[in-house]
Amino acid sequence: MKKLINSPETVLADALTGIEAADPSVRVDHVNRVIYRAAPKVDGKVALVSGGGSGHEPLHGGFVGYGMLDAACAGEVFTSPTPDQMQAATKEVDRGAGVLHIVKNYTGDVMNFEMAAELAAAESGVEVATVVTADDVAVQDSLYTAGRRGVGVTVLLEKIVGAAAEEGRDLAAVKAIADKVAANGRSMGMALTSCTVPAAGKPTFDLPEDQMEIGIGIHGEPGRHREPLASAKDIAAQLVEPILADADFTGDPAIVMLNGMGGSPLIELYLMYGEVAALLEKAGVSVARTLVGNYITSLDMAGCSVTVLKADDEILSLWDAPVETAGLRWGR
Amino acid sequence: MSETFTIAHARSWIDGFASRCDEQKAYLTELDSAIGDADHGANMARGMGAVRGALSADEPQALDALFKAVGMTLVSSVGGASGPLYGTFFLRVGMTSGAVDSLDGAGLSASLHAGVKGIVDRGKAEAEDKTMFDAMAPALDALDASLAEGGDLAAAASAAAEAAAAGRDATEPLQARKGRASYLGERSIGHIDPGAASTALLFDALAEALS
């Protein structure tokens, strides 16, 4: 394992120190491992708390700031944060209008956020609503699995719902827009390589040089199936087709993200986006906004994912609203 | 031979589980690499290490307080799915044990059953979902059967440990229906469930504590 770390045990603590040193617009609670806005939101506005295992940067800490999250709870690498962290964050950011928890559908995240919401309601009386993202079409049968994983749409949701909260909408309205985004986004990912969790010291799975893994999540877990490495054009089709087969994206404007898993260079991500855009156009999907880059990563994994969100005028207007975070920044 | 499960047994159980999680860290992580996300060993070792620290800083004198401390420490230090699951297990074991310093066989069984029910409430697992439940349920069945036959606590715990290990091994041919392993579908077949493996360590530690 070759990594820019001091020791596997201190990766998260050391990274939080770096985030705080790099970005004066956030502050870090090193005990609870929560990243907050340095300048909290004004009273009366709904606050947004998300969090999850680390290793997906910039998600979630890089999306703390004006127009997106109020706090992000950082777990160990690929491990959900704990209820006490989430409860501390929830209590800290509440401005009297309630708090929305944004949770990716992974068993551990869901269970820990559930416990946190129970604790927060019982001990501090903060009103908590929850949205769970579950957009990964690689998981087909939700009856016999833990359900679809929450992946790329989480990035788009944090931006769009953050704007709605910034406008001063109440908790029910903020949750409604969150549910709408969660319901209308679909993602599909693939890997060219595995990733290496620092504490494990070796790649999570073996992927031979001439093979690729289709339908991966974001935690280095193996995907739906493995097959010989193909061209970008073929890979794009393997990502776009299951998304379009799962929901109808014609007739409405779409927001599309071509996301890198952390180990693929931007030139390849743009190349992939070109292939994805051509396929979407051919399928009659009208792309209104795009995002290309590393937004929800899986450590050093090479590969990418595609997320398509069916939007409308309201969602586009919230998407275009000003945002000022380390990971996304425009209009302000 | 033990007729009662005392607070000393409880401490020894927890300490033995912590040692096993630490010793078997690489093994648990290797199992988790195959069908999960390669962190179960590190998480359990970290969590049980924190439990050791918490129990040495504060020495609870009643079973409810001791198991509550174990459960809360796990919930706040493990993360993942294992944190809430093992945390809920020990919290429920403590609630059912009550403010006593020992339990008889029936009392221990009732407490463990409450713990397993907590895991089912939290994780919604059923038999053969390829989870820790597949090691826990047979362990409790074996414990109850041994007690019903008039076995002492040592024999009952030993039977539970054997059944948990068998339950762990029996997860190998199963297709996972819960947790991250479920995303693998048929590819989860042929691997032992890491949660069932740590549960086998839990009952092995209980057997040693009561031997």
UniProtKB/TrEMBL annotation, chain A:
<dbReference type="Pfam" id="PF02733">
    <property type="entry name" value="Dak1"/>
</dbReference>
<dbReference type="InterPro" id="IPR004006">
    <property type="entry name" value="DhaK_dom"/>
</dbReference>
<feature type="domain" description="DhaK">
    <location>
        <begin position="7"/>
        <end position="330"/>
    </location>
</feature>
<protein>
    <submittedName>
        <fullName>Dihydroxyacetone kinase subunit DhaK</fullName>
        <ecNumber>2.7.1.121</ecNumber>
    </submittedName>
</protein>
<keyword id="KW-0418">Kinase</keyword>
<dbReference type="InterPro" id="IPR050861">
    <property type="entry name" value="Dihydroxyacetone_Kinase"/>
</dbReference>
<dbReference type="GO" id="GO:0047324">
    <property type="term" value="F:phosphoenolpyruvate-glycerone phosphotransferase activity"/>
</dbReference>
<keyword id="KW-0808">Transferase</keyword>
<dbReference type="InterPro" id="IPR012736">
    <property type="entry name" value="DhaK_1"/>
</dbReference>
UniProtKB/TrEMBL annotation, chain B:
<dbReference type="InterPro" id="IPR004007">
    <property type="entry name" value="DhaL_dom"/>
</dbReference>
<protein>
    <submittedName>
        <fullName>Dihydroxyacetone kinase subunit DhaL</fullName>
    </submittedName>
</protein>
<dbReference type="GO" id="GO:0016301">
    <property type="term" value="F:kinase activity"/>
</dbReference>
<feature type="domain" description="DhaL">
    <location>
        <begin position="8"/>
        <end position="208"/>
    </location>
</feature>
<keyword id="KW-0418">Kinase</keyword>
<keyword id="KW-0808">Transferase</keyword>
<dbReference type="InterPro" id="IPR036117">
    <property type="entry name" value="DhaL_dom_sf"/>
</dbReference>
<dbReference type="InterPro" id="IPR050861">
    <property type="entry name" value="Dihydroxyacetone_Kinase"/>
</dbReference>
<dbReference type="InterPro" id="IPR012737">
    <property type="entry name" value="DhaK_L_YcgS"/>
</dbReference>
<dbReference type="Pfam" id="PF02734">
    <property type="entry name" value="Dak2"/>
</dbReference>
